[in-house]
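Q: How do we represent a protein-ligand complex in a form that can be generated token by token?
A: Start from the inputs.
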Amino acid sequence: MPTGHKNPPAKGMQAKLQRLGLARREDLILHLPLRYEDNTRLVPIADAIAAMGGAQVEGEVTDCQVLFRPRRQLVAQVVDASGALTVRFLHFYPNQQTLLEPGRRVRLAGEIRDGYFGPEMVHPRIRVVTAGDPLPQTLTPVYPATAGLSQSTLQKRIAAALCEGAPLADTLPPEWLAEQDLPDFWSAVRTLHAPPADIPRAPLAEQRHPAWRRIKLDELLAQQISMRRAYRAHRALGAPALDKPDDLAQKLIAALPFALTSAQERVTAEIRADLARPHPMQRLLQGDVGAGKTLVAALAACRAIASGWQAAFMAPTEILAEQHYLKLKGWLEPLGVQVAWLTGGMKGKARRAELQTARTAGLVVGTHALIQAGVDFERLGLAIIDEQHRFGVRQRLALQHKGRLPHQLMMSATPIPRTLAMSHYADLDISVLDELPPGRTPVRTRLAKAARRDAVMTWMQSGLLEGRQAYWVCPLIEESETLELQTALETFDWLRQSLPEITTGIIHGRMKAAEKQAVMAAFAAGEIRLLVATTVIEVGVDVPNASLMVIEHAERFGLSQLHQLRGRIGRGTSMGICVLLYAEPISEMARARLKIIYENADGFEIARRDLALRGPGEFIGSRQSGLPLLRYADLERDTDLVELARAWADALISQWPEAADAHLARWLGGKTELLKA
Ligand code: ADP
Ligand code: MG
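Then emit the structure tokens for the protein with adenosine-5'-diphosphate bound:
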């Protein structure tokens, strides 16, 4: 059967195309230009010289020589009826010398500038032509390339992919497109590969042209379809329906010294409805630091326990897990619920007892210890994961596998902007806790140069003497844990010597769990007034009386980390003050980021600005679920398209599953498997 390929690509060429991900015809068609060159017009040489800047000219080569002035270079003269132009190549290949043989007629495209020997074009693109050769009618695409693959090869292959064979059918209904003023797929890709000369240039360059919007939408749609399918597949599985009446939760609420915030009531209702269904919940609870996520989780656990199932609560650090344990035990044991604590540090008999308790306890709290081999739950119905971004996908799955598809509640205090969440967490349901409990006084933030460290210490001393408690957070030293520890110990000594009247403690990652617990307990009880800490206190720690904080080398921390740290002192009734010490010189970026933290108290707003500053790649870190990277769409700029893609993905999956398949195949090809990770 004839394939339509006159010259099947050479082996080496195929490998290079593969490296760009261009294995199929569709891949070539979806390999879109980075920018364009305008070769649709010719300018007389004299005019081009008068105007300077970019131009295309045509003329005859009158001279071409390799000169040494002083470096070896190729210099040619090209002449038309209006004037002459010098062409210079500082590096060149023999074939360029051949193209510029005297007597040839050439088209040159490039920048004209004023050189040492008069106006010249350096490294122009050259095309040998005969007089009267027609000019292209369309802009010339410049593609993302790879070493050894020239633009002209890519241009030819892609043009061939467009011409040889039938147009690729649209995967979207024409009515939908018409409603959004979007072009059909085939005309969008043709426009983008070969824009007509009269196309509005700015929308094209800025990727706002409807053809670009169509392609970005398609790309986002592919992402949404794959993730929404994964979501639906999961939701179709069976799970225990946790649907017994809410007596236990009601008892807990009645016993609390405060009322739920309306946000807590709302998300609790969302979770309750979800748990009652015989399909596994996959929900992410987002809420700013201090919004009261633990209580929401406790109420969900009550639901599970009252329905005759167990709940497991996993936290990323020992300190945090223990705090949760103590808090949850305080809430639930009086209601007759057995709350177990799993450390993983136990041995022998004690370990066996621990495992035995965990097997049947209503609620089991712990760190990664929960997912270790040998830990078994008889009836795990709900897996709660606190600070979910601190866990890898595999760890979250491991907890799930400790039961027969338990419901999952993940919690995060790293709020991410709505569109980013829609894109990256499209396979989850999201609940947002967007209200802080009443009576919190916002933390005041101050910036100070590191040179003022002594003065800051003196200021802190007076606060401590008034009866406040404080954290002194040591710099993050990513490359060396040893150095980080050393710095913390030095700071501890310095503070102890400078403030002999203050009981000072230290907590860091190298301490044994029991030591950390003892220190945290002493700090919570007010015996330790000043706590020197590495970032082990970053997440979740809750000591309401602590209202002062100093963070050294604040410029080294991520914004969400700073926000979380600062959140440690916004918990009591006295106004928290957080001093961010920064070392000079400070980069523009670091300055901009500290400004964001300084000016904003709302975690979502901080996240939004952080995203704008850094872009989603760095922002989200690695979610490592095989989420395809977006090549064209931009989550920050194309927010409207993200929302449209979500709506259309759900509609397509339900109404035209074959079209959804075709769409995925076009965009992800063989890569769809990745998404099932
Ligand atoms: P986070 O959302 O950061 O995990 P926590 O669950 O640790 O926040 O809650 C912070 C503090 O607020 C805790 O001391 C918690 O008991 C308290 N809290 C939670 N809900 C309320 C409420 N509705 N009213 C008052 N305090 C609350
Ligand atoms: Mg928390």
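The mean pLDDT is 88. The domain at 41-135 is CATH 2.40.50.140 (OB fold (Dihydrolipoamide Acetyltransferase, E2P)).
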